[in-house]
Write a structure and sequence with these properties.
By secondary structure, the chain is an alpha/beta fold. Helices cover 43% and strands 14% of the residues. Helix 4 links the parallel strand 3 and strand 4. It is globular. The termini are far apart.
Length: 499
């Protein structure tokens, strides 16, 4: 059996980093870890190929080679997935779809022959046998949440690693919290399951021996969801990183209660974690209560952010507007909090009701759902009727983005962040990073329309925070992505508005 694994293209969003990647000469942020893990569990005698559409186009010759095409992705990749499902079926190929988009029962995948909902580890052998016999069923869903200690290392050798800016490793699935808008707990459950320390070390060894040096993203939705297991892993990580002379810098996502555990923070710093993404969502207490994000109410939000930054770990954060409890001044409060917390990379989105979440069920019962979510909370498109006037909400959202990603505001926030950042772990210097510096100085320092703010930021860094110059360059490049993203959105909206 010849299986072609296809990863659909991402649109231009906060998370695509489309406008930052060219500085490094990269095409995508991370390889498709899900498909590469599935590959490792397919029958050994199957032939397999990977095509990541974020890296390159799918060739007709690759479709001619295949017997079956596997797709995986998220809702935001729906348009690309639909296009390529149709392309594969036009050639008479069987198509199999899995991943979060399947769990959401997204209409984009309605043309697929076989859909795998949820985690596939426990049913993959059955699916493979059915495909070989030509008797595969239209729908598969595992009755149990799989044991991650049995998951093999992903087939990273199938990916062109040079085209990615980071590698990816998964330690856990699931989250113990109950955020109303979140689909993670619906798909992966509230009891975080983890791999063993030996498994993670084996995956790092694989990445190391494939020649990778630089950033590695632990893609868990909440890395500290199971603190007991995390604290068993971290000493092994510290030891491995030290023995290998710190070849990687680590990035992950976590809940805000990370700030409540100084021991855990110190261990992460020693393991060379350099950045963590936090779901802060809003400084409005009533809105946090509404969405049952009680873990963000235990400690002052600003103090939590600063305690993590003081450990030398950058805080990236997600923010949301559109909660029923949001007051009229929520937009100004979001802007002020982002400014006070000095979080350069602030991903602000409109609330979306994702399929089968608690929020989706509540809004459906209230008769407030309008349409399926696109899975992209960075576009000004609501899929439910908000309590606030819709136009007021959208205008306020645009105001936040236009303010926090104006070059002057962004660079002032980045400079404030560097003044709060403690001694940070050094990111391994690789060739693509050196090229990124050269391209930044040329494109941003000479060609951009914000070069005055750029040079002021670098001059201040050299004068006050010279030890963080590498971080400053990285932040400047990321700023370019957000400047371009917001400008493009404004152009689209200007064309769409009636004269």
């Amino acid at each position: 059996m010849k299986v072609l694994m296809v990863y659909p293209e991402f649109p231009d969003t906060f998370w695509s980093f489309k406008h930052a990647l060219p500085f490094q000469g990269k095409r995508s942020a991370y390889p498709p870890l899900g498909l590469l893990t599935i590959s490792a569990m397919l029958p050994a005698n199957w032939e397999r190929r990977l095509v990541d559409l974020n890296i390159r186009r799918l060739k007709d010759s690759e479709l001619e080679w295949a017997d079956v095409v596997f797709f995986s992705g998220m809702m935001v990749q729906g348009p690309s997935m639909k296009e390529h499902i149709e392309r594969a079926k036009a050639r008479g190929l069987r198509t199999v779809v899995g991943g979060p988009i399947a769990s959401a029962q997204d209409p984009s995948i309605s043309g697929a022959d076989h859909v795998v909902e949820g985690e596939a580890e426990d049913l993959l052998a059955e699916l493979a046998a059915d495909l070989e016999r030509g008797e595969a069923k239209p729908f598969y869903k595992s009755k149990l949440l799989p044991d991650l200690t049995k998951v093999p290392p992903p087939h990273l050798h199938l990916a062109n690693l040079r085209r990615y800016s980071s590698m990816a490793v998964q330690f856990s699935r699931g989250c113990p919290f109950t955020c109303e808008f979140c689909d993670i707990i619906e798909i992966y459950g509230r009891r975080p399951r983890t791999k063993t320390p030996d498994q993670i070390i084996a995956e790092l060894e694989q990445i190391y021996h494939l020649g990778w040096r630089g950033r590695v993203f632990l893609v868990d939705d909440n890395f500290i969801g199971n603190k007991k297991c995390v604290k068993a892993l971290l000493p092994r990580l510290v030891e491995w990183m030290r023995d290998h002379k710190y070849p990687f810098s680590l990035i992950t996502e976590a809940s805000l209660n990370l700030a409540e555990d100084p021991e855990l923070l110190q261990q992460m710093r020693e393991a060379h974690f350099t950045s963590v993404f936090l779901g802060i969502e809003t400084p409005v207490v009533e809105s946090l209560k509404e969405t049952t994000k009680f873990q963000n109410l235990r400690k002052n939000l600003l103090e939590s952010v600063r305690s993590i930054q003081a450990r030398g770990i950058e805080v990236m954060a997600g923010f949301i507007v559109g909660f029923d409890s949001d007051p009229k001044d929520v937009f100004d409060r979001q802007i002020q909090f982002i400014r006070d917390a000095a979080i350069p990379l602030s991903m602000v989105g409109l609330l979306n009701a994702l399929p089968n979440t608690q929020l989706w069920r509540r809004l459906k019962a209230e008769g407030r759902l309008l349409k399926e979510s696109l899975g992209n909370n960075t576009i000004a498109d609501l899929n439910f009727i908000p309590k606030m006037d819709t136009q007021e909400l959208i205008a306020g959202y645009r105001k936040i983005l236009q303010t926090i990603y104006s070059p002057q505001e962004y660079f002032e926030r980045a400079s404030a962040f560097l003044s709060q950042l403690g001694t940070a772990a050094r990111t391994p210097l690789v060739y693509s990073d050196m090229m990124a510096v050269a391209r930044s100085l040329w494109r941003q320092g000479l060609l951009s329309n914000y070069r005055k703010e750029y040079w002021k930021f670098l001059a201040q860094t050299l004068h006050r925070h010279r030890q963080h110059l590498d971080k400053a360059i990285a932040l400047a490049i990321m700023g370019h992505h957000f400047f371009q993203l917001v400008a493009a959105a404004e152009e689209i909206e200007a064309v769409a508005e009636p004269a």
